[in-house]
């Protein structure tokens, strides 16, 4: 596996990284923060594990208290808050109504700047969720434990659909709206969904995108794989007007606004779920072509998303909070929907791209709504900086806290974020975590630790990370060596399993450092995150990037294998390898290497077909930056493609590493020649 690493460049960067200076939170920030007592670390020390996490669960309203905080009797299938009962939609909605039903839950901001924002109160969200839940139960025939696939863009109907599922105990599986119909189909098939919830279309970068056409592809492709979608339920971007160019299929497609007429005023009792009943699936890329359905439970996940929103994002009742991520990713699930709603805060939900129509847009939104907590990714920061380096200074807004998440942030970009976006007033938290984790793992606790550009920070309270080398030895702090970051202990937000594939769950996350598969002691089951990291003397972790065949493009996680399998659908392509090339905006961007079937000659037309196929199969986010047609790919003697070498070539590395283990070392010079033409051309 070590030979197959993608992106050795990241390791090289690490070697050259110097230690950065600290930045301190202001005394004003510290004084008001939700956590400013260092005793929190003692409370959440390993000695107090797992009972320390009771505090997290106590932030929620339970129908029935839990009996055991952690049942660790069947590692690594941890069961949190067993015996307890609760409902996630109740916690996000009903419990706020008494004191704050007129408070805004979401300010929906259409991408078109002339379209007025829409404020949706907790009461209004409650009503919509109830009516839609009634529709799902009655017209949809859905019940607790069923799976539903939701393929939606950033509109309020998306959290409505999620919470309606949660109210009924239906397991939602949200597919990022930018994914293709085919990618949606794969997820429909794996989760065995009979119902697809979608929308007619939406606005993105100034364009109307026909979204419903993807549903047709999804249903058709799912059918080929044996999964029948009986009903497609379609929201309207403009309520009451169906605007997709794609016609409705009679007996299969239904417009939600029409159906809702029968459910007006309906109220649905929230189903009292066991803490360990699954809440949702979120598919994420793994090292094989098949995306894995990360399964999150109700009580543990919701406790963790809520508590980390309170203590790390420092959300308070009167904040206006804006997370610019997409709800179709885990950041949106935990930190646009479940965490913030459970805390009852007002959030911005923005439809479009951050730089539309110009790089001042986010700052105008911040100014207009008085946003004081801002949450985004390094990719967004890089592009806002590139297109409008001085824009933030032109607007009168003031952030108290800012978040970066999804990729490593370069110290230089961090400093622009701090000085220019945050106006030197805002604390930054660089939060490292993953779909599998439910919520943050590493970050500074904002009032309790200094910030250090480029480093996420130590484990947050209750999270005890460690770096192991490939042989299982602990890599000590300050050694300057990278290794595999692991978490020593379970925590409430950790995934429960991979949907339908518990063996893969154990293999992927626990097998590497577990020495005794029969051990019933959680200490023998460190969680392997799959990222390389370095630990500095001060206990701060710097994340280096993925160690498996996963690449991170603009904060979106893509499996190299997914792209490769798409390319290999083209008959003219013999072999394909995808690597991550360093990109000034997106962090990394995919480059595709292909060898062609005999008799086929390279052409621009074929190149275009490869790019189009990837876009159709996966979506525009996976669009490769370059397609290199080469005579042969470098391979080990056992026939494994050596992506490491291709990655070094794509990244202009001075030293491409050892080629002596190749079965065909002679091809390397030829490939270098072809790629060199780029820098010369
Ligand atoms: C990367 C997103 C550096 C990492 C929440 C991880 C980060 C993957 C950071 C998970 C960060 C996330 N610094 N790298 N602050 N946050 N990553 O599942 O490689 O979409 O494994 O979850 O993003 O991506 P995912």
Query: Structural class of the secondary structure composition?
Result: alpha/beta
Q: Main sheet?
A: 8 strands, mixed
Strand order of the largest sheet: 12-11-8-6-7-14-15-23
Average pLDDT works out at 93
Global morphology = globular
Strand content: 15-25%
Number of helices: 20
Number of strands: 30
- Provide the low-confidence segments as ranges: 1-16
Radius of gyration: 24 Å
Distance between the termini: 35 Å
Residues in helix, %: 25-40%
- Catalogue the ligands: 5'-O-[(S)-ethoxy(hydroxy)phosphoryl]adenosine
Sequence-ordered SSE layout with sheet pairings:
Blueprint (H helix, E strand, L loop, with lengths): L7 H9 L10 H6 L6 H5 L10 H4 L10 E4 L7 E4 L2 E2 L1 H13 L3 E6 L8 E4 H17 L8 E6 L4 H12 L2 E6 L4 H11 L3 E5 L1 E4 L2 E4 L1 H13 L6 E5 L17 E3 H5 L12 E2 L3 E7 L7 E6 L1 H13 L8 E4 L6 H14 L2 E5 L10 H9 L3 E4 L1 H10 L13 E5 L5 H11 L5 E5 L33 E4 L13 E6 L9 E2 L3 H8 L17 E9 L5 E6 L3 E4 L2 E4 H8 L5 E11 L3 E10 L7 H14 L8 E4 L13 H8 L16 H14 L1
Parallel strand pairs: 4-17, 6-7, 6-8, 7-14, 8-11, 11-12, 16-17, 16-18, 18-19, 19-20, 29-30
Antiparallel strand pairs: 1-2, 3-13, 4-5, 9-10, 14-15, 15-23, 21-22, 22-24, 24-25, 26-27, 28-29
Helix pairs in contact: 5-6, 5-7, 5-12, 6-7, 8-9, 11-12, 14-15, 19-20
């Amino acid at each position: 596996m070590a030979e197959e690493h993608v992106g050795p460049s990241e390791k090289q960067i690490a070697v050259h990284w110097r230690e950065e200076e600290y930045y301190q939170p202001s005394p004003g920030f510290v004084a008001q923060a939700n956590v400013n007592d260092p005793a929190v670390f003692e409370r959440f020390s390993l000695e107090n594990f797992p009972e320390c996490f009771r505090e997290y669960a106590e932030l929620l309203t339970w129908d029935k208290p839990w009996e055991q905080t952690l049942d660790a009797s069947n590692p690594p299938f941890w069961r949190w808050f067993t015996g307890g009962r609760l409902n996630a939609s109740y916690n996000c909605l009903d419990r706020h109504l008494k004191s704050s039903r007129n408070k805004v839950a979401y300010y929906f901001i259409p991408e078109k700047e002339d379209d007025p924002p829409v404020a949706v109160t907790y009461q209004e969200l409650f009503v919509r969720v109830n009516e839609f839940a009634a529709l799902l139960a009655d017209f949809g025939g859905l019940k607790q434990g069923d799976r539903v696939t939701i393929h939606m863009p950033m509109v309020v109907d998306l959290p409505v659909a999620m919470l309606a599922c949660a109210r009924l105990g239906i397991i939602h599986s949200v597919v990022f709206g930018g994914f293709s119909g085919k990618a949606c189909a794969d997820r429909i098939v794996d989760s065995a969904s009979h119902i697809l919830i979608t929308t007619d279309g939406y606005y993105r970068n100034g364009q109307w995108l026909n979204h419903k056409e993807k549903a047709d592809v999804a249903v058709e492709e799912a059918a080929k794989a044996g999964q029948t979608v009986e009903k497609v339920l379609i929201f309207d971007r403009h309520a009451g007007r169906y605007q997709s160019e794609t016609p409705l299929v009679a007996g299969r497609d239904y417009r939600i606004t029409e159906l809702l007429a029968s459910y007006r005023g309906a109220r649905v009792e929230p189903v009292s779920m066991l803490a360990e009943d699954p809440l949702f699936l979120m598919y994420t890329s793994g090292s094989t072509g098949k995306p894995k359905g990360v399964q999150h439970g109700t009580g543990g996940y919701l406790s963790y998303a809520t508590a980390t929103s309170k203590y790390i994002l420092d959300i308070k009742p009167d904040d206006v909070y804006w997370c610019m991520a997409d709800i179709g990713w885990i950041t949106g699930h935990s930190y646009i929907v479940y965490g913030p709603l459970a805390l009852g805060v007002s959030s911005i939900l923005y439809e479009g791209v951050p730089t539309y129509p110009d790089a001042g847009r986010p700052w105008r939104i911040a100014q207009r709504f008085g946003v004081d907590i801002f949450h985004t990714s390094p990719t967004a920061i890089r592009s806002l900086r590139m297109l409008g380096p001085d824009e933030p200074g032109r607007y009168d807004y003031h952030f108290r806290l800012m978040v970066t998440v999804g990729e490593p942030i370069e110290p230089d970009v961090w400093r622009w974020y701090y000085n220019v976006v945050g106006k030197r007033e805002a604390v930054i938290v660089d939060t490292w975590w993953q779909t599998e984790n439910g919520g943050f793992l590493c970050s500074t606790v904002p009032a309790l630790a200094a910030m250090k550009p480029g480093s996420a920070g130590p484990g947050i309270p209750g999270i005890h990370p460690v770096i192991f080398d490939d042989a299982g030895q602990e890599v000590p702090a300050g050694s300057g060596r990278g290794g595999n970051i692991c978490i020593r202990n379970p925590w409430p937000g950790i995934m429960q399993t991979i949907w339908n594939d518990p063996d893969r769950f154990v293999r992927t996350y626990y097998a590497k450092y577990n020495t005794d598969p029969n051990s019933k002691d959680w200490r023998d089951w460190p969680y392997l995150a799959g990222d390389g990291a370095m630990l500095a003397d001060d206990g701060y972790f710097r994340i280096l990037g993925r160690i498996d065949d996963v690449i991170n493009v603009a904060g979106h996680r893509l499996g190299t294998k997914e792209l490769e399998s798409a390319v290999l659908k083209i008959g003219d392509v013999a072999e394909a390898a995808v690597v991550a090339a360093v990109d000034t905006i997106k962090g990394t961007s995919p480059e595709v290497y292909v060898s062609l079937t005999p008799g086929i000659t390279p052409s621009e037309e074929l190149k275009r077909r490869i790019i189009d196929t990837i876009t159709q199969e996966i979506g525009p986010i996976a669009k490769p930056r370059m397609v290199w047609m080469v005579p042969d790919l470098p391979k080990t003697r056992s026939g494994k493609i050596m992506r490491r070498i291709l990655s070094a070539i794509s990244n202009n590395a001075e030293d491409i590493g050892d080629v002596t283990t190749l079965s065909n070392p002679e091809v390397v010079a030829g490939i270098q020649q072809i790629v060199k033409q780029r820098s010369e051309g």
